[in-house]
Amino acid sequence: MSSQNFLERYKAGECERVWQELKYLGEIREQSVKDEVLEVAREVMKRVDYNFQF
To answer: Does residue 1 form part of some domain?
Structure first.
């Protein structure tokens, strides 16, 4: 995985790659990784909301 966190990479345009990596993580036990995944999910929902409104 990249040295950048998932959210930074997602925002930088690596959406598909980030989702692919998250899919292969399986069960996440580390809280720091769980927090990152949650932030990516929040960003996705922000984009869904924006696209839905326009």
So the answer is: no
Look at the pTM and tell me if it is higher than 0.85: no
Nearest-angstrom CA–CA distance, 48 and 27: 25
Rounded distance between C-alpha atoms, residue 51 and residue 39, angstroms: 18
Give 1-27 pLDDT, tens digit per residue: 554 799 999 999 999 999 999 999 989
Domain of 49?
6-53
Q: How many domains does the chain have?
A: 1
H helices, E strands: number in the chain: 3, 0
Do the domain assignments include residue 28? yes
Q: What phi and psi, each to the nearest 5 degrees, are found at residue 39?
A: -65, -40
SS3 15: helix
